[in-house]
Amino acid sequence: MSTQLWVRSRTEIKRQRRRKAHSCWDHLIIAPLWPLHGANLGTLLRTCDAVGACLAVPRFPWVPQALEIGNTLRRPSCVHWVNDPLRWLASQRSAGSEIVGVELTDESIRLASLPPARRRTVVVLGHERSGIPAEATALLDVAVEIPMVGTGMSLNVAVAGSLVAYKLAGLV
């Protein structure tokens, strides 16, 4: 028995989505605060648009160009600029945000157990090679691990950040 799938047209898809880009939803912030590769920032910027999140990035000299190249949507996106990642994280936590780190720790919970965000949440992503610095892990409310069955030790930071963003946004 075959089932025919109904494919929605671009017009139907657009009708179900936001009419324009947001300036700042400020409920979910994806924060790759120690990035290594600009391509990952572009991917995360696109994910932020898809899930209704903002992106927080450090003021490294190369980051603006990486975001410009990576912004395939060709419209402004919500970007928060961070001068001092540790101080910024501490201020977010003091202001009542939940700080979620994507990192392997003894207390990490599995991605499947992570509930959707119920309050302002900052997702901290570490350096592609060394992860989240020890000083920053002390600021985390929860650490999330993404289970893997392959031989790799971790996922690309943009992939990991996107998975967690979708989960926290309640879209998976």
From TrEMBL:
UniProt key word Transferase: yes
Listed InterPro entries: Alpha/beta_knot_MTases (IPR029028), rRNA_Methyltransferase (IPR051259), SpoU_MeTrfase (IPR001537), tRNA_m1G_MTases_N (IPR029026)
One GO term of the biological process aspect: methylation
Residue ranges of domain tRNA/rRNA methyltransferase SpoU type in the record: 38-166
Highest taxon of source: Bacteria
A Pfam short name: SpoU_methylase
GO molecular function: methyltransferase activity
Keywords: Methyltransferase, Transferase
PANTHER family listed in its UniProt record: RRNA METHYLTRANSFERASE 3, RRNA METHYLTRANSFERASE 3, MITOCHONDRIAL
Stated name of the protein: RNA methyltransferase SpoU
Annotated source species: Kibdelosporangium persicum
Taxonomic path: Bacteria, Bacillati, Actinomycetota, Actinomycetes, Pseudonocardiales
